[in-house]
Each structure stands twice: as C-alpha cells, then as structure tokens.
Design brief:
Receptor-associated Protein; disordered N terminus; 3 domains; about 5% strand
Length: about 475
C-alpha cells in the first residue's frame, strides 16, 4: 500500500528531474565558451580549431601571402674558390644542383677551384640552435641599414656584409640570403627560407616594409629592438646566474671544511678521549659520510641536474609548473614578470606601428616568448579576439599580466593610441625589471654572507666545544 501511495509522488519527482535536465541542456548552449578554463594541450586544440574556422586567421594580407613551401630539395656542396685578392676561400653552400652553386660563386666574383657534394659522413658539428645571436643580428641590421641609406642596392649591401664577417656560420647564412635575392625572391622570403636563423618578428617587419618602401627605417627600428631585448636578457641572466654561482661557492667552502679540516681534529679528539657534544658528533658523522660517499653524492647531484634539465626541455607540463613556481617567488617572480611584460609589449608596439593586424601580432608574440604561461595567455587572447572580444577583455583577470599593463591597454583602446600605450608599458616595466634585478643583486650578497657565516660558525663550534672540555681536564 505504501508503494502504491508513493507512486504518484515518484512520477512527479522524475518529471521534475527530467525538466531540470532539459533546461540545463538549453542553458549550456547559451553559455559562452571561456578559454580561461583551458590550458596546455586542450588550449592548443581549441586554438587550432579557431584558426581553421575563423576568418581572422585567413587574411594574411598584412604580412604577405607568399609562403615558403620548401618543396625544392637542396643539396649541400663544399667549394674552394679564390677571391679578387688571390686568397683561397673554402665554404659550404646549399643549392638545387652544382650549376646553381657555380653560377652563384661566379656572380660573386670568385674564381672557382673545386665544387663537390658533401659526403654522407661530412657533417657540421654545431652546439648552437642555428639562430643568429641577438648581438650579431643587431649589428648586422645597423650595417645593412647604413648601406641602403647610402644608396647601395640590397644585394650589394648583403655582399658587403658577407665579406666583412669572419664567422663561418653567419657567412653561410648570408650567402643563402644573397642566393635567394639573386633568383628574384623578396628579402622577407629570403630571410624566411633560412629556417630559424632569423626571428619571426624581423621577417614580419620586413614583409611590411616591402609594402611601405621604408626598409632602412624598419632595419633601424629592429636594431634598436634587438639591442633592448639583448640588454633585458643579460639583466635577467645576471639576476639568475650571480646568486647561483655564489651559492655554489659557499657549498664548496663548506664541503672543503667538512672533508679536509674536520678530520684533522677528529684524530686529536680521539687520542685525548674527550667527551664529544652532539653538535660535534653530527659534524663528524657528516664528514665521515662525505669521505665515504662523496663520489656517489656528486653523481647523484649530476643525475638530478640532468633529469631536471631534460624534463624542463621536453615535458611541457613540468616546464610550466617550474615557471609558475619561480614566477610566484617573492623576489625572483617579479623579475620574470617584469622582463616578460617589457619584451611582449615592446614587440607588440613595434608590430602595431608597422600596421600588422592584432591577430597576426599575437601569433608573432607567441614565438617571441619561451614562457609557457605567457604563451597560454596569448593563445587565449587569440581565441577571444576570434570570437569578437576586445583585446583588453582577453587580458582581464590573468594573474601573470599586471593590472597596470591591463589598464594601459584599456586606455589605449579607448583613445585609439594602443601602440603608444604599449610602448609606455614597455618602458615602465623595463625600468621595473632593471630595478628588480638591482634589488636582487643587493640582497643576494648579505644573504649569502649570512648563510656562509652560519655554516662555518656551526662547524667551528663543533670543533671549539670539545677543546674547552680538553682544557678543563688539564
């Protein structure tokens, strides 16, 4: 009877649950996608989907529609030639066939001695990534701009630049650029065909300048940009390397005392039969441990360092976690954030000043930074822009994007001076970064001195206390 009476109530309950479920389905359709909830691989997949569906990523008009397809298979040749002074010059050149190499070298004014394809085991031993160093690139851009302003054609300017360099890798890259210019490729395409030798921001700026006709001015701006970037990078490295080196030296000093100084006193204490306090027993135990297992300890430290380095380079989630950890540290975190914001906004301002669309600028910016947190921020920004959101809205609420920078973007959008505001943000955070580095350097020295004093004092106390006991027995 109870089940019969409860049956209508059960039916009403199930009906209510069904209506709630249907209501939730309709309400979910109206909920706008929130990219801030995505990160890592899920964010990458969403960005790829947006790029395929959105027209914002299909224009490509501002940075040139010609793409490097890389269909031509190049062969690497070694050549031996004589220059106009009669000196023998050897080098490497990649081309479609030997005829192309011969024509290129002849046009460059060389007397050909020998050209042979490189063998299977003829490989380059290079420890670098193939990129041109920022300092070398900045100096080369200044030279190239000077030659162009003097009325020298671009190809001849590149030839002068090639003859002036003594770096074999740079010479090889410049020769490839000249070859592409000779066969009629635009300068931007010639740079793009060199793989990762030239930064993407430089290639996009050159593409824009080819439409405006102000290549020399663009090269000057890029030279200043890379000079500032190199300065920021050196300040960052200085802030990180200096404390690391000092800390290693302190560890080495403590290791030396425990390994070589403490054992000398151990023998003396043992011969006198002194009663050893706990602090002395601890230091003696540490000394004996290091003497027995120092090799295993060093190997273990090296294995940990190697494992950490491998995980950081190859595992994205691990790299992101480490970057978040460092960025939330009291002193070092601000240094990282200020440096990243200064670099990103400086690059953004340069791109906007040259008429590059915001969506294309964001893609370039994602290649400028190596920080996973900012890559994700820029990816979420691209997704938001494709959905019609304002630029300032896409940066709102990001913990790694300071409120000051966000407010400056809002002001730039409302006044139509976004590029100018980005330049101001770059200057502001550049100064903050410099000050943060200075503060870290000033704090590191007393902290290290205190650490060293405590460690050495602890060891000395372990030696002095038993001596007092020995003097008391005399």
């Amino acid at each position: 009877m109870k089940d019969v009476l409860r049956f209508p109530l059960r039916i009403l309950t199930l009906a209510g649950e069904g209506l709630s479920y249907l209501k939730s389905l309709f309400s979910k359709k109206q909920v706008e996608f929130d990219p801030n909830r995505l990160e890592g691989v899920a964010l990458d997949k969403e960005l790829e989907r947006v790029k395929e569906q959105s027209s914002e990523f299909k224009r490509g008009a501002n940075v040139g529609e010609k793409k490097v397809d890389g269909k031509e298979k190049l062969t690497s040749f070694r050549y031996t030639v004589k220059n106009s002074m009669g000196d023998t010059v050897k080098g490497i050149f990649d081309a479609v066939d030997v005829t192309a190499v011969r024509v290129f070298l002849t046009n460059e004014g060389y007397e050909i001695v020998d050209i042979v394809p490189r063998g299977k085991f003829d490989i380059d031993i290079s420890l670098g990534s193939g990129k041109i160093k920022t300092g070398d690139l900045s100096f080369a851009l200044i030279q190239l701009s000077t030659y162009i302003k003097a009325g020298i054609p671009l190809i001849d300017s590149m030839r002068i630049l090639t003859k002036q360099t003594s770096n074999a890798n740079l010479k090889r890259i410049y020769d490839k650029v000249i070859y592409e210019l000779v066969i009629g490729e635009p300068f931007s395409v010639a740079l793009e065909k060199q793989g990762n030798a030239f930064p993407s921001i430089l290639i996009n700026m050159v593409k824009t300048s080819e439409m405006t006709g102000d290549l020399a001015g663009t090269l000057d701006e890029m030279a200043d940009y890379f000079t500032d970037t190199e300065k920021t990078r050196k300040e960052m490295m200085s802030a990180l390397i200096y404390p690391a080196v000092i800390f290693v030296l302190c560890i080495g000093a403590v290791f030396f005392l425990v390994m070589f100084v403490v054992p000398q006193f151990v023998d003396m204490f043992s011969s006198q039969g002194a009663e050893l306090p706990a602090i002395t027993k601890f230091v003696i135990g540490a000394s004996e441990f290091l003497q027995k297992y120092w090799l295993f300890l060093i190997v273990g430290v090296l294995v940990v360092i190697f494992t950490f380095s491998w995980l950081y380079k190859n595992i994205r989630s691990f790299r992101r976690a480490m970057q978040v950890f460092i960025m939330k540290m009291p002193a070092f975190g601000n240094t990282i954030i200020y440096g990243q914001i200064a670099t990103i906004t400086r690059t953004f301002a340069s791109l906007l000043n040259h008429g590059v669309f915001i969506t294309d600028s964001m893609e370039v910016l994602s290649n400028v930074t190596e920080n996973e947190i900012y890559k994700e921020i820029l990816s979420r920004t691209l997704i938001g822009l494709s959905k019609g959101a304002k630029l300032s809205d896409t940066f709102k609420g990001e913990w790694a994007f300071p409120v000051v920078a966000y407010e400056m973007i809002v002001t730039g959008e409302s006044t139509g001076q976004l590029a100018l505001m980005m330049q101001k943000v770059s200057e502001h955070f550049g100064n903050l970064h410099h000050n943060a580095v200075t503060v870290i350097k000033s704090l590191i020295e007393p902290v290290v001195i205190i650490f060293l004093a405590v460690a050495v004092g602890f060891i000395l106390m372990s030696i002095i206390l038993p001596m007092f006991d020995l003097y008391g027995q005399i």
